[in-house]
Write a structure and sequence with these properties.
Number of helices: 6
Strand order of the largest sheet: 25-39-38-42-36
Number of strands: 42
Radius of gyration: 37 Å
């Protein structure tokens, strides 16, 4: 019988398989392997690791009996005798030839399935050579980067690099390298080789001319193309390359071309010595910049060029003069959600203030809005804390009594607001902080107070009894690439293929569709299918591409939209995200989702937030659902200058008021009761 030599394929395939499949028990793994094999009655060879088969041989034989393989031979790496199975088509061969070697599982001349693993680990992989894919593997298998598996009768392996679970090259373990060709009557493996990994790579290099680089194997082939003999080399020996400025020094790349090739004459001319002169322009300034070690290695004439370095323009640091924080007692606190807040006597006491010693007319609250500062340095921005308008009940007597309290508008680091640049209501979420802090102090001049905003008594041009409303979800849990500002939330994989998210859409108008916007990241190289459903109704089904073999890429983000037109039981949104994995390496991450819908102007828990219609008109707003006439409406469009609407008509739990609105300036209101 001729053995099959280790040989390289004619063409190199670049396929990376990243596998991570767990089985509860070794028995479950064996069973799943055999279930994956086609039952076509071919011969099979089964080689088990000695310590495992000895304890489970009857169980394993029972599993094998359920297959349709003929003449299955079990080669065991232990010299002790093994009882034969009661079935005639299964024979057990005793041999210590492969003692202490890893096992090779099931291969036949027609099926061409095989498994390869390291000696020292309890691991196994079942491969399909015809498609170069892994069918299944055991829990501790080391990932193999396969380039090609021969489709000939039997199996040959080539072009691979072994990696461990931490994705680092295994450089010290031996590799069991089994090659099975046509089986002879004795049913033994025709060729077995054991390599040190370094020896194996040297062997592959020696017969292929390939080399190992960056943990991968590359193949370089040189072919004479159609334009080969039309090639004309650049006649110049010295050329100007690119121009640039590095740390204030103008620099010019000089290209030197000492090799000239004439393909028609099949000659190469090599210049051993080239002399050229560089002439600099006159003028310029001499500077006295300090020595820069980085630049000294970048420029061949840095000793002179350092004095041509232009002075760097630095940003001017703005330091507020007489900052509000320079005097007085200050306490920092958080407003986690958007709404109208109440601070009473006990709050001031717990903050460390003595309320009885405070003149409430001098109490002040500061905050800068909770939005991320613009990266455009030319846009205006506050240089100090900004005072916000507040209202204090009971301040007129100059004392802060037990029944006195402060009312102010607060919001967290994520909220919805009108954006004049886009002309839309959008979600603002602070990139660098999960908290929006407020500062309270007292003393000195009188503090800024909430003013009244006059309502109108003229006839309305538009009656508004609904508003856009929003719900959203975003959590920052993982930075996939460990770089940048993009963080993602819940993960999806073969272990967790779906997650559901609940939101109550109070006052939702069922006649108006719900719009969804979501962002999902594919953190794997291959594609997978994403499905999104609302209350078990599918609203999105699409394929999200992976990053393939793109270097320096950890994932691909996909922003998508969906619409739901049906009714919601109890106005409760049950949004379910599901993936259909294509491999065990499939992984996805939910970045965020946003829900926008139309709602009526009914208060829930004596509270409602709503926006004006983007139009120029006198609008009459009709609110309902309050438990009493003890309520107020706040215009919170400008967070620093909140106003209270007067001339409000109240009847039971209903509120009506009229305001002149203008297009391009959407107003935001909050109405509260009690």
């Amino acid at each position: 019988m001729e053995s099959m030599d280790l040989k390289l394929p004619k063409e190199s395939q670049s396929q990376v398989l990243d596998i991570n499949l767990s089985k509860n028990t070794v028995s479950d793994f064996y069973k799943s392997v055999l279930e994956d094999l086609p039952s076509n009655g071919d011969d099979g060879v089964l080689l088990y690791k000695s310590f495992d088969f000895d304890s489970r041989r009857q169980e394993i034989i029972h599993i094998i009996e359920g297959t349709n393989f003929k003449n299955i031979i079990i080669l065991n790496g232990i010299s002790e005798s093994i009882e034969k199975s009661t079935l005639q088509n299964i024979s057990v061969t005793e041999t210590d030839k492969f003692r202490n070697h890893s096992f090779l599982l099931i291969s036949s001349p027609k099926i061409n399935y095989a498994v390869i693993s390291t000696i020292t680990e309890d691991d196994i992989q079942l491969l399909n050579p015809s498609t170069s894919t892994i069918i299944t593997q055991s829990p501790k298998v080391i990932d193999l980067y396969w380039r090609n598996i021969s489709k000939q009768v039997g199996i040959s392996y080539s072009d691979f690099v072994i990696h461990d679970s931490e994705n680092t090259v295994v450089d010290s373990k031996k590799i069991v390298f089994d090659v099975i060709s046509k089986l002879d009557s004795s049913r033994v493996i025709s060729d077995r080789r054991v390599f040190e990994l370094s020896s194996l790579l040297r062997f592959l290099n020696s017969i292929s001319g390939r080399f190992v680089e960056d943990e991968f194997l590359y193949k370089y082939e040189f072919k004479v193309g159609e334009e080969y003999f039309n090639y004309v080399d650049n006649p110049e020996l010295v050329l100007f390359g690119g121009f640039g400025i590095t740390r204030g020094i103008n620099n010019q790349i000089i290209k030197i071309l000492p090799v000239k090739f004439d393909p028609s004459a099949q000659k190469i001319r090599l210049y051993k010595r080239i002399i050229f002169r560089i002439t600099y322009s006159k003028g310029g300034t001499i500077s006295a910049q300090p020595y820069d070690e980085l630049l000294s290695a970048a420029f061949i004439n840095y000793d002179v060029a350092r004095f041509w370095q232009k002075k760097r323009k630095l940003l001017n640091k703005v330091t507020p003069q007489n900052s509000v924080l320079s005097t007085g007692d200050w306490v920092k606190f958080e407003a986690p959600d958007e709404g109208i807040y109440k601070l009473d006597f006990n709050f001031l006491l717990s903050a460390g203030f003595d309320p009885s010693a405070i003149d409430p007319r001098t109490i002040k609250i500061f905050n800068n809005g909770g939005k991320t500062l613009s990266e455009n340095l030319l846009e205006p921005r506050p240089v100090d804390l900004v005072e916000n308008a507040i209202k204090i009940i009971g301040e007129s007597d100059g004392k802060f009594d037990q029944g006195d309290y402060i009312i102010f508008y607060g919001r967290g680091s994520s909220f919805w607001d009108y954006d004049k640049n886009s002309g839309e209501i959008k979600r603002f979420r602070h990139t660098y902080s999960d908290h929006n802090y407020y500062w309270i102090t007292y003393g000195g001049v009188t503090g800024k107070r909430i003013q009244d905003k006059a309502g109108l008594n003229t006839s309305p041009q538009y009656n508004q009894n609904s508003s856009l409303a929003f719900a959203d979800f975003e959590e920052d849990k993982i930075n996939i690439g460990k770089s940048g500002r993009d963080y993602y939330g819940d993960d999806f994989s073969q272990a967790i293929i779906s997650r559901s998210y609940l939101n109550t859409l109070n006052g939702r108008l069922s006649s108006v569709p719900i719009n969804y916007k979501f962002r999902f990241a594919n953190g794997s190289s291959g594609n997978f299918t994403l499905q999104v459903s609302e209350n078990n109704s599918l609203i999105f089904n699409g394929i999200l591409n992976g990053y393939l073999d793109t270097p320096y890429t950890a994932g691909v983000t996909h922003s998508r939209n969906a619409v739901f037109t049906n009714t919601l039981p109890d106005n409760r949104s049950v949004l379910k995200f599901s993936i259909i994995p294509t491999s065990v390496t499939t992984v996805g991450y939910l970045d965020y989702f946003e829900i926008s819908y139309s709602r009526n102007l009914k208060a829930f828990n004596n509270n409602i937030l709503f926006f004006s219609k983007d139009t120029t008109a006198i609008i009459e707003y009709s609110l309902n659902g309050f438990t009493s006439t003890n309520n107020e409406v706040f215009d919170v469009t400008d967070y620093t200058n909140v106003q209270i609407i007067d001339s409000v008509r109240r009847s039971g739990g209903d509120i009506k008021f009229r305001i002149s609105e203008s297009e391009g300036n959407v107003s935001k209101y909050i109405a509260i009761g009690n």
